[in-house]
Amino acid sequence: MILKRLFQSTIGKKILMAFTGVLLFGFVIIHMLGNWQVFAGAEALNDYAQLIQSKAFVLWGFRLGLLAVVALHLWAAITLTIANRAAAPEKYAESKTLGTTWASRSMTLSGCIVLGFIIFHLLHFTVRTVPGTPEYFQQDLKGRHDVYAMVVHAFQNPWLVGIYVVGVGLLSLHLSHGLQSMFRSLGWSDKRYLPLQMNLARIFAGLIFVGMSGVPLAIFFQLKDF
């Protein structure tokens, strides 16, 4: 009952959004590190993919858990946005934008676009139904799903590269403000540390952008012998 009342409150929802945000940020880091296996070559990436796919119970448990975290994060964000707009007069809401960053004012929009990008990513590499892409069920010489060939082929297509770079850019923009909000929601709101928090959030977001967009750009521009 106490937990129910907590998450019906504004503070509880902010804590929930911060906690789920931390989990999603951790997933992005893990996913980025996994993507980097492409730079080690076909053997490394296909081994990594086979290891993940061989543990079907763990894989689907992780996917369902991630889906639940995304759903909770979205629910908290939407309900907080609705409550904030209902509580604040229109003129006050307009004046409140003064002194804020574009990233902070566009959190709802960037979050919705990032969600669309994630769905596209799943349709592309997991469900494999994106129009204009080949069948990805080919195997390598060891009989493994050839994820390396799938990734390299996909990112030779300029429009796919563009979608991924823009999508990752918006994800990084969302993170840059989301991480700052996380500090405040968890009680680390001392104004003395605000510049440090802002800089750390921007650095982490920038690293995510470079790390995630680096794969499609490196393949497209042949920065390595893929």
Explain this structure to me?
The protein is mostly helical and 226 residues long. It has a single domain, classed as 3 helical TM bundles of succinate and fumarate reductases, CATH 1.20.1300. Helices cover 76% and strands 0% of the residues. It has helices at 2-8, 10-35, 42-54, 56-87, 90-95, 102-105, 107-127, 147-154, 158-185, 194-220.
What are its keywords?
76% helix, 10 helices, globular, single chain, mainly alpha, 226 residues, 3 helical TM bundles of succinate and fumarate reductases
What amount of the residues lies in strands?
A: under 5%
Main sheet specs: none
CATH class: Mainly Alpha
Number of spatially distinct domains: 1
Report the span from N to C terminus.
Answer: 56 Å
Short description:
The chain is mostly helical and 226 residues long. The chain contains ten helices and no strands.
Secondary-structure blueprint:
Layout: H1 2-8, H2 10-35, H3 42-54, H4 56-87, H5 90-95, H6 102-105, H7 107-127, H8 147-154, H9 158-185, H10 194-220
Helix pairs in contact: 1-2, 2-4, 2-9, 2-10, 7-9, 9-10
